[in-house]
Every structure is written in structure tokens, then in C-alpha cells.
Amino acid sequence: MRIFFIFIIILSIVPKWQLNAQTVNVNGRLLSTQQEAIAYSTVLLLKNDSINYATISNESGNFALPNVNYGEYTLHISCLGYNTRIDTINVNANTNIGVIVLSNTIDILDEVVVTDNSNEYANRASFIISQYAKENAVNSYDALKEVPMLIVDPLQKTINMAGGVNTLILINGVKRDRLTLSAIDPKKIQRVEVVVNPSSRYLIDGVTGVVNIIVKAPNEPGYYGNISTQQNYAFKYGNTWIGLRYAKEKWALYASGQNFYFREHDYREKNERYTYQNADTILIKQDGNGKYNKMMNYGQIGFDIFPTNNSFFTASATFIDDRSENKLLQTGEITKNNSKENTYSIYSKSKSPYYSHTYNAYYETKLNDKGTKIAFDGSYNRHKYDNELIYEENDGNSKYESNRTLTNKKQSVDFETVFTLPTKLIDIEAGFRTYWQHTKFMELSQKVEWEEWRNYLHVNGNGKLGKSFFYQMGIGVANVSSDVSGYKHNYWEFLPSISVKYKISNSNSVSVEYNKGRNSLSILYLNPYNTASDTLTISRGNPYLTPYYNNKFTLRYTYSKGNLYFSPYLQYTYCDDYIGQLSFLNSDNIYITTYDNINSYSHISLGLNLRLQLKKWGMINGGIYSQKNYLKNRYYDGWGIGYNFNASANYKNFRLSVFWYQTPISYSTNTKSVIASESNITLAWSGIKNLSLSIGARWLAGYTSKTYSKGANYYNYYYQKQEDRNWMILLGIEYSFKSEKQAKQRQKSINNYDTGVNM
């Protein structure tokens, strides 16, 4: 009976002249945040506050509005028990709106992060951030803490994936700098795609994980701004951020910036070296204190243009000015054959300025209403890194001084064309990319120049078989030409990526993944000249080195339902041309190191990603993984454990946040490195609209390193420990502002680029 009366009301208000006009169709589907179909919801199209078209959704949540005239309309969706949805759409052809998610009015504060299965693929998971998080987040980084598998540092405002993954950040499928998020209203984040096994398109850069943040209505008129700062009470440490965005319907301007500093930060460093050669033993111990200064300014400006409903252009410029200075004074003693020889002192001072500017441009156009599109992506980067080192040793009898200046200049050009073709059976993405870089490394009279060209062709497909099997497969083929001061290379690279997922039920799935990722080289590895850091150490690169490749196999299980996300995995990685470190002592007892593609390397990882939403009271989001390394001719063996933990507790206007992150022990042929954990605890109060005040404490990482080397008649051991961090009290303030139109959330969700990409 209720349905009958709704139809009577709808038919009575629809103007008769609309029925006879030359028109098109508009349709879509309504789902709840629990991915359940919403039936009997009223769907209206309004113009100038008058209802022009109306219908209701069926039992599957589908709705259709036939015979709609071209034009711009207000889409009004309402249903008892759900929040009203208001969007603006532009109808100029048959329009499939797709899935629209309505939040529950009764449980809006208890809404949880759920997996979005409306656009499912084998190699990724898609998450909807809870309404509570978006309403109470002071910035976009804060809202992203809810997403499983992500490590979001609340102070540094960085986003990475758990498990030591090399992460690429996209916004609406476009590569963006991490600063861009500072200028985005967290309420406009529609969903987040976490890609655990990227397509071959990204493997050439060594990317092993992609985070695609889908933002609704990027061209909605209005403005948004966010300003935040966290400072140590003694002003020895601080971080300040600013993000601004102003948009009209056809264009948008944005700017972001960061200032980060250490000022006269005290630390302590201990070193110990033990050497055995030709029956002589030498033990060197040194201990001392240092001071560290750092000042980094990071800025970005850019604009977006929407020439038509089917095209998009964006350009940006990013600038970095990063300067650091380090002073260290140590005293120690030298013991030979258990007999003390002398005491000595070491003084070192280094300055390391770094400058960078990067320019990016991206253009995309849709070729038809089925999603076929072509995109052009280009960038130019230029940076310069200097290292000025003063080193002095004094044992009372002799004095050694070294003044070194290292200069590293690099410029690169990157251009890519990508074509996307969705079909009924498979979504295809193919592209071609060319990359050129030139690096110049100078030390005193030594100069090394490294030029490299990469031409890369890739193709990738995503599809499904039936309702339960999903697959992704791709291959990339690259030709690389390299010239290191006359040492020339030319070789081919083949980089495949495969994912298969079986969906056991709506909440359970199991997947198998494989990819071959590239690890790029550094000029420090390629420099063929000797570099001396002190009287007992010389390092030397190898210009014949080639990149090494990781073959990664992963078995993953995922459970996602309601407020719980649970995903354990087993991973095996193998590399047969790993760059190993070669070490030896010469006749003068000088320790020399160099590198070569001589080693095989493998490791096994066991990991778990977990997220528990405690409704309006908070959430727990984290992961843990343990890694067993297998490396030939090595001195260390064992399991390394890493973890990340991000949790919050809410009560009225107060929010307590805890961040804790630990990387596992890392190994090379003869080294073992342990980095101390990083953690942060913050109590924030947001009792004033758009303003948040906080007090917190931060613990930053120190490190421990052990190096072994062994030969026929010698043995060398080097130990270094830096205790350079302690708890720092931080006071913070954050303020955001936006236009009233944005506050009303009249968001355009149609005919814009808030879609995922074929990763």
C-alpha cells in the first residue's frame, strides 16, 4: 500500500510535457555501507528546486529514470533510516551513475570501514572510510588512519604500506606528491584502493604497492584550507604544514607547504672496531657526543583544468630546500695485541644541502561513455646534493686531516602514454614510457657521469570468471642503455605481474600473487674511484653493476565484514643477481669495500594486517610481520620482526591517538642493522569548530649497525650505535576552513575523474 501511494504522488508531480520530449536514460544502484541493497528509496531529479523526474529503487537497489532531457540537475535520494544524498549531475547522454552508498541515520556515528566490492579486482582491496572518521578528522592524513594495510605517520604526514613496501600514492588515478593531500578536505575522500600487487606498469620503478585515494567532486566550486603546526616546547624540533585549494567549475588552484627542523639536537655515538691480521689484533674504541641541525622547506603549487566533461588536465611544480649539519667529537683508545698503544680524539663536521625542483603535467580524455580513455603523463626533475666533510684524527703523536666535498647533480625526464579499454570480458590497459636521466658525481678531481635511457612497453588486464574468480595479469618489457663514464651497458628487462583471487563468500577470499620487481642503482654503487672516510676505511663502487630483480610470491587470505578486517599472508622472495658487498684488508691494514652482482638472496615473510573498528569509541589498525633471510656467504641469520600500530580512542571532544612503528632487522652480505622504533602519542581537543589543540610526545629512531668481514688471514668487525633520540614533548594546533557550499556537501559525483585505475 505504501508503494502504491508513493507512485501516485510521483505521477502527480511529474510535468506532462516531459513525457513527450526527446530524452535519454539515467540509472544507478543504491547500497548501504554494509553493501546491502536499499529498496524503495525515492530518487528525484530537480531543477530550480522543482521536481522534474522521480522513481523508486527496486528490491536489488537499482533505479532508472527514463526520458530525461539534457541538462544539469540536482539528484535527491532519500529513504527512511538513511541519510539523504544530494548530488549535482550533468546529463548529456545515457548516464549510468553506478553505485551510490547511503549511510544509516541511526548508526551514523557507529559507521565502520567496510570493503567496497562494487568494483572488485584480484590485486586490490577498496575501503570506504567511516562517516565518523571523515567528520572528526582534522586533515586527510588523519582520516586515512582507518584504512587497513596503511602506515600513516601523523607527525611527518607520510603514507606507506605495511611490510616494507615501496609505496606509490595516487589521487584519482594520477601520481601526486604527498603534499597534495594537505589541500584536500577529508570529507571528500570517497574510498581508498590499496593495491597489494601492482600491474606491470609500475614495476619498472620498483613500486611494490599502490594507494589510490578516490576524491569526489575535484572541480566543485569553493575553497578549503588547512594549517597545522607541532612544536617542541623548547623549539628544538618542529613541523608545520599548510594546504590551500580554490576551485571553480572548470578549474582549481592549490598550494601546499611544509617546514621541518631540528635545532641543536644532542646525540651520543659509540663505535668499536676489531681487526685481526697476520696474528696481530687491533681494537679501537671511541665514544662521544654530537649536535645535529636540520631545516627543510617543501612547497608545491599546481592547478587542475576541466575543459569538458570528458577531459582533465593538471600541472604542478614542487620545490625542496633541505639543509642539515652534523658535528661530532669523540675520544677513544687503540689497543694492539692486548696492549694499550695510545689515546686519540676524532672530530668531524659535515654539511649536506639538498635542492630539488620537479614539474609534472598530466592530461586525460575519455573517448566514449564506456570508459575508454587515453592519458599522457610527463615530468622533469632536477636536483643537487652536496656533502662537505671535515674529518680530523689526533693521537698526540700524529694528526690526520681530510676535507672532502662531494657533489651529486641529477636531471631526469619521464614521459608516458597510457590507453585504457574496458570490455565485457576484461579491462585492458597498455602504455609506453620513456625515461632519461643524467647524473654527475664529483669529488675533488674525480668526476663520474652516468647517463641512462629506459624505453618501457607494458600491457595489463583485469577480469573475472563467473562470480567468484578474479584475475589480473600483465607484462612489461624494457630496453635499458647505460653509460657510466665510458662503461657501457645495453640489456633487456621483463617484468611480469599476476594475481588470482577466489571469493569464497562476500566476506572471505584467498589470493595468489606474483611479480618481478626492479631495484634501481645508485651512483654511489657505480663510482669506480676510491673514497676514504678515515685512515682505516676506503669504499669503491663498480661501474659494471646492473639492477637486481626480486621475484615475489604471495599467498593471502582476507576476511572483511562489518567492523573487522583480518588478512594474514605468506610471502617468498627470491633474487639471483643481488648486489653483494665485497670486503678485504690490504697490506696497510686498510679496510676496503666494493660491490658486485654475485649473490643470491631470498627471504620468507609471515605477516598479518588487522583492523578493528570500535564504532564511535575509536579504532585499532595495525600489522606485524616476521622475515627470515637467506643470503649466501653471510655472517648473520635469524628472524626479523617489524610491526606498525595505529589506534585512537574518542570521548566527546577528546581524541587519544597512538602511533608505533618498527622496521625489522635488515641484512646484507656482512652487515646487520637494527633501527629503533618510532612512536608518537597525542591527546587532541576539538571543542571549537574547525580548531584542534593537542599535546603529545614523540620518540624518533636511533640505529645500531654491525659489519663483519673475513678473509684467508684476516678478520674485521665494526660496530656502531647511535643514541640520538629521546622523548620530546610537542604542542600542536590545527585549523581548517572552507566555503559554505562545501560544508553543505553538494558534491559532483558524475562526469568527473573520481574513478580507480587499472593497477
Summed up, what is this model?
This protein is mainly beta and 759 residues long.
- Compute the CA-based radius of gyration: 29 Å
Number of strands: 44
Sheet with the most strands, sense and barrel status: 22 strands, antiparallel, barrel
Low-pLDDT ranges: 1-21, 106-114, 742-756
Basic shape: globular
User: How much beta, percentage-wise?
Assistant: over 45%
> Counting H and I runs of at least 4 residues, what is the number of helices?
5
Report the span from N to C terminus. Answer: 48 Å
Structural class: mainly beta
Helical content (DSSP H or I, runs of 4+): under 10%
Task: Give the averaged pLDDT, no decimals.
Answer: 82
Tell me about this structure.
By secondary structure, the protein is mostly beta strands. Helices cover 4% and strands 67% of the residues. It contains 5 helices and 44 strands. The strands form 5 sheets. It has a 22-stranded antiparallel barrel. A 6-stranded mixed beta sheet has the order 8-9-14-15-12-13, with no helix packed on it. Strand 25 and strand 26 form a beta hairpin. The radius of gyration is 29 Å and the shape is globular. The protein starts with a helix and ends in an 11-residue tail after the last strand. The N terminus is likely disordered.
